[in-house]
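Regression report. Comparing outputs from two consecutive submissions.

Submission 1:
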Amino acid sequence: MSNTAWETLSNQAVATAGIVYFLALVVYLAEWASLRQPAADRELVGVGGGAEPAASAAAPAAGAPAARTAFLGRLGILLTALACAAHFVALVGRGMAADPNRVPWGNMYEFTLSGTFVVALLYVVLYKKFALGWMGPLVVGFVVATLMVAVIWLYDAVAPLTEALNSPWLVIHVISAVIATGAFTLGGIASVMYLVRMRAERRAAAAERPLSRWLDRVPQLDALDRLAYRVHAFAFPVWTFAVLITGPIWAHEAWSRYWNWDPKEVWAFITWVVYAGYLHARATAGWKGRKAALLALVGVATLWFNFIGINYFSTTSQHAYAAERIVP
């Protein structure tokens, strides 16, 4: 295949992935909608004695919605996995379209494709282990929105790597940074849902009414808090390896200095400090729940500002991913 054919394949694969991700989002939302349970059925739950015949009569009627919900859940994760596969083809096509062939991390568009791919891939891989079915519409919605931004505003034609990027350290540094970014994003989603559910539970308790039906799918607060902590605990050493080890080594190779006070370097270190504070506060000060969730959101905000924002708000960064702005 020619380079042009590979680039066309990549663009078509991105479009396909976007469409399938969107279909998965629709299915996930339909799954959430199917979880709606009439109040009369809820009142039958846990009722004994004379209510047993009524409960038994309601059981067949409840079976069909439960089966539909399960089917939609399976369909949603299947579509997400298919979209993830198309997403991978898009990344391979970008790399093969360059002359010479290279890793697909030459500009901001390609970095965004890689980051969203890792978010989706981690969700699919961890789906069963951590029972992440409730996270489907949030993850897929994030991926769809970010891909739209990438295609509409960040797209750049395939080009050879600049001298500063043409290094084996590109692979090591970027793989670790992208994996950490994907994991931190999942941890941020869990933290957001912790705050949402906590507020909803307080309002429901004050009004003496059941929790909103769509939040019934979200795990309990302690489970959300534990999930967020585990994901952040995995991502932090990977980010440390990317920011404090491979990054400085690559900087010394490219610019003869381990640290240049470049805006992206500074913000990457700020992100590291925030997440270090998050883990330290949990381990020593016993920070859990709301405080930890808020600190995690500060971390994910600095992370994505560093990932995208620096390239548009800084005119001096040597890490700008637009090829013409990279200064070797």
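Submission 2:
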Amino acid sequence: MRQLVYYIGQTIDGFIAGPDDEIDFFPVPDEYSTWMFSQFGDALPSHARQFGRIDDVPLSRFDTIVMGRRTYQPALDVGVTSPYAHLRQYVVSSTMTESPDPAVTIIGGDPVAAVQALKAEDSALDVYLAGGAALAGALLPEIDRMVVKQYPVVAGAGVPLFSTGFAPTAFELTDVQTFGSGHVVLDYRRA
């Protein structure tokens, strides 16, 4: 069975975005971006894959993305209706009833049941959970792995890594990647 992988960036103080969903304050130096392109190129939006000249590189980690409406919204704001055209795209939303693009499926019901069905599919590649916090909280029982990119910055306030009730869930740290810039990538698997 394939896994649900929460691949997400956060500040030192645990925020995945600013109070108004800002992400432009996350520093992305060359060494770190080179690593992201080479190791997690599947998780980059299609325009970033083109910029990095990896748009023709075969998928190696993910073939499906699940994201919340707020994660999808910035693409819509600039007229992009299929931001991850190289992946099967699912948007979980209680307010969006119709998809603006035939390549994007809206999940209006139970995201847990939808993700369980995606995980049960016959595929060698995993499902990428792109966020946000409320969706990650709802899907916490289904998250098999977390790849947390910790940026060397403190936000002070913003969107937390998870938004859920008290739900202690053990994960085991399996790998740590460090960069001279202060970036750290923590790889966790469900204990």
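Expected: both submissions complete independently.
Actual: both completed, but the second showed a warning that disappeared on reload.
Relevant detail on submission 2: The domain at 4-183 is CATH 3.40.430.10 (Dihydrofolate Reductase, subunit A).
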